[in-house]
Design brief:
Blueprint (H helix, E strand, L loop, with lengths): L9 E4 L1 H5 L9 H14 L3 E7 L11 H7 L7 E6 L2 H9 L4 E7 L2 H8 L3 H17 L3 E7 L12 H12 L5 E5 L7 H15 L4 E4 L7 H9 L5 E4 L19 H10 L8 H15 L16
Helix pairs in contact: 2-11, 7-8, 8-9, 10-11
The structure holds zinc ion.
The site of zinc ion has 6 residues, from loops.
């Protein structure tokens, strides 16, 4: 049945951004550095280090500059950040960030709640950001949030997502990301949308940002890899959610995703045992049991 299963999947680790941004316990900069180093030792090759957002709105991200100055950058790892506006991009440029994510929401309501602008206005700004980031030598991921549905609006039409992707493609981003921000995607929908985006995206790789809100996270990964998607955002322990989306907890867990891929013969370059150890260590630091499943098979949380 699998027609074009990629031989290797790249994991884009978002625990330090999406994962913790909603957590009450502030993660110290030292702990973030430890986690970044541990993840790269496990073989994770892409890590979202921070977002450059208003520190008053997202206190977990307030140390972005300090964090970037402290990260020991390995040549074989992509260190990424998310930016929402020009001010954020300028901060990222000053930190020498090599890879930025720029997003537009396919839902008008979410767009207004998240960034106080319409989707069309957000797209205009995003396209300027891509241009400016490319001018600074950065790689850019252009993402569509709520590409599979919206907690506020319900269905999001495929035509709307495709239009946004086309608008992005005129600025030649290095990657197109489809984000299931509200955790509403299902495998059939993932297949259809990825297929459609592949037809228009040309050489730009497609990545998926999935949430496990309704338990369909890994089923959606499986659907997507069968359509040739080879980059997935995952969060250690399955931590995460969007502060501006009701009930949007739980990114797909890195260890559960890696486990499924390895079990099905797909490589990730990640050492799963070390990854589970890293997840359990971080779980102890956060003082809570994470939603990930494979980390909790053999031991109980103390
Ligand atoms: Zn997310």
């Amino acid at each position: 049945m699998p027609s074009r299963l990629p031989r290797k999947i790249e994991i884009h680790e978002v625990v330090l951004r999406d994962g913790i941004q909603n957590e009450k316990k502030l993660v110290s900069t030292d702990q973030k550095i430890k986690l970044i180093n541990r993840l790269t030792e496990c073989g994770v090759q892409r890590i979202e280090v921070s977002s450059f957002v208003n520190p008053r709105l997202v206190p977990q991200m307030a140390d972005a500059e300090k964090l970037w100055s402290m990260v020991r950058r390995r040549k074989d790892v992509v260190y990424a950040a998310l930016v929402l506006n020009e001010r954020g991009l300028e901060r990222a440029m000053r930190c020498g960030v090599p890879h930025v994510g720029v997003y537009v929401s396919a839902s008008e309501t979410h767009s207004r709640k998240n960034s106080n602008v319409s989707t069309a206005e957000a797209m205009m700004e995003a396209r300027l950001l891509i241009e400016k980031a490319h001018g600074a030598g950065m790689e850019v991921r252009a993402g569509v949030m709520n590409a599979f549905g919206c907690a506020y609006e319900g269905n999001v039409s495929q035509a709307k997502v495709i239009k946004l992707v086309k608008d992005f493609l005129k600025k030649e981003p290095d990657e197109i990301c489809l984000a299931d921000t509200s955790g509403m995607a299902n495998p059939s929908q993932v297949r259809k949308l990825v297929k459609r985006v592949r037809e228009i995206a040309g050489a730009a790789p497609i990545s998926l940002h999935l949430h496990n809100t309704r338990g369909l996270g890994l089923a959606n990964v499986w659907a997507a890899i069968n359509e040739g998607v080879s980059i997935f955002d995952t969060s250690l322990g399955g931590l995460g959610g969007c502060p501006f989306i009701i009930g949007a907890r739980g990114n797909i867990a890195t260890e559960d995703t890696v486990n499924m891929l390895h079990e099905t013969g797909v490589k990730t370059g990640i050492n799963l045992d070390m990854l589970i150890e890293a997840s359990l260590q971080f779980e102890r630091y956060m003082g809570q049991k994470f939603p990930a499943m494979v980390s909790h098979l053999t031991r109980s949380h103390s």
